[in-house]
Amino acid sequence: MWRYCESYTHIQGAERGLQRLEAAVGVTGPEALARILDSLKLDSMKKIDNLKTLKEIVLRLEQIAAEGKRSVRNSPLADQPDSGVGHSIP
Asked: Is 76 helix (H, G, I), strand (E, B) or coil?
């Protein structure tokens, strides 16, 4: 029974990791994921065979996502009002 609980816990951890990965890729774009996989000498997500590697990838992606949000917030254009360019006038 103990092995079953341990396996179930690992499956839950992997599921949470994949959900976090999906959310982070939604912010960073797939290019960031590709760069991280390349840096780890992995040619696809299918090559990830342990939770430690998944966690490393997720943490790197989340860091990139956080840095991107900070740079957008700190952008000089972030505080400027919308010019209306590209919007249709009713």
From this structure: coil
Mean pLDDT for each consecutive 10-residue tract of the chain (90 residues)? 79 94 96 96 93 96 90 53 41
How many residues appear in the chain? 90
Task: Identify each DSSP E strand in 1-90 by its residue range.
Answer: none
Mean pLDDT of the chain: 82
Helices (H), 40-89: 51-73
Is the separation of the CB atoms in 54 and 21 below 8 Å?
yes
Q: Rounded to an integer, what distance in angstroms lies between the CA atom of residue 36 and that of residue 90? A: 45
Tokens 């790197």 locate to 60
User: What is this structure's pTM?
Assistant: 0.72
Helix-strand-coil split of the chain, %, nearest 5 = 70, 0, 30
Domain boundaries, the chain: 2-62
